[in-house]
Amino acid sequence: MRPLQGQTILVTGGTAGIGKETARRLLRLGAQVVVVGRDGDRARAAIAELRRDTGNDRVDALLADLTLKRDAYRLAGELSTRYDRLHVLINNMGATRASRELTAEGIETTFAANVLAPYLLMEALLPMLTRAAPARIINITGGVPRGRIDLDNLQAERSYVGLSHYNQTKLALMAMSYATAERLRDSGVTLNVAYPGHAYTAINKDLPISAYPRAARPIIPLLRPLLPILYGHRAAVRASASSVYLASSPDAANLHGTYINSACLPVPWPDAVLDRRNRDAICALCEELATQITDFTR
Ligand SMILES: NC(=O)c1ccc[n+]([C@@H]2O[C@H](COP(=O)([O-])OP(=O)(O)OC[C@H]3O[C@@H](n4cnc5c(N)ncnc54)[C@H](OP(=O)(O)O)[C@@H]3O)[C@@H](O)[C@H]2O)c1
What we know:
Elements: E1 8-12, H1 17-28, E2 32-37, H2 40-54, E3 59-63, H3 69-82, E4 88-91, H4 109-131, E5 135-140, H5 162-184, E6 189-194, H6 202-205, H7 220-223, H8 227-230, H9 233-239, H10 241-248, E7 259-260, H11 271-274, H12 276-291
Bound molecules: NADP nicotinamide-adenine-dinucleotide phosphate.
NADP nicotinamide-adenine-dinucleotide phosphate is lined by residues 13-19, 36-39, 42, 64-67, 92-95, 113, 140, 142, 196, 198-199, 201-204.
């Protein structure tokens, strides 16, 4: 029997990039996988490819723009009408923007994608995860998750450099994940964070030089031609290893509140995550944004 037979797994951002490689591996292990993307044609092409390639046809796609609260809640609703239980939630989708943008719901887009969407999906899907216990949540970090968190700039209200803000949102995701893991202790649902490693994918392919921190800008034109060679498809496959490990390995069954690197090894949490003031402020913001009534007419 294949080890994940009978398990239902949701992979956000599973129609391309690292998420599609994650879905491919999980399908090969026998899981039922639901991938999430925004576009019907891309999603149909992805599930056809995954079915053909793995011989496992138990893969479906759901559509949602996860920068929007209404789509995250609709996705959770649709999933719960199709499936009774969810064994693994992989919050893989991430985003970065060259310049500061607000969503139609008035939330800064990178924060909405990288922090709020995982928060909303964890909250909305917790009943399905609890019914499937032992169940697992995996949140995917990225960038250079180091340094301090600027609590006055969580939605880049004061300053914005694309990749610096991306790093801040990934640190914020980790802080929110650490706090949620504390809350879920003994719930039957584990929560861990994985760093995937670099891959040349949609998230970084077309970033303009202005999205990089000023000091890095002179070397970017020199590095760019090397990226597809060094970090092409094989890198995306490699980068799926840490989330697949947390989702499927018996060794990871008892991991909870752990941060692992791309080699699947536990590593210390950044200092900014260990600072309770950061965790409290970020969770409070997520809670406030989740409950805020949105003016959809904006
Ligand atoms: N690539 C790297 O070097 C790297 C390094 C470290 C960490 N990471 C992290 O790893 C994760 C996966 O990265 P990746 O490189 O695979 O990214 P990617 O190539 O940009 O991911 C593409 C996937 O995300 C979906 N997606 C994008 N925006 C979405 C939105 N607003 N709502 C719903 N789905 C959306 C796409 O759906 P469509 O089909 O609709 O486009 C597609 O399925 C991210 O969290 C990223 O931050 C990446």
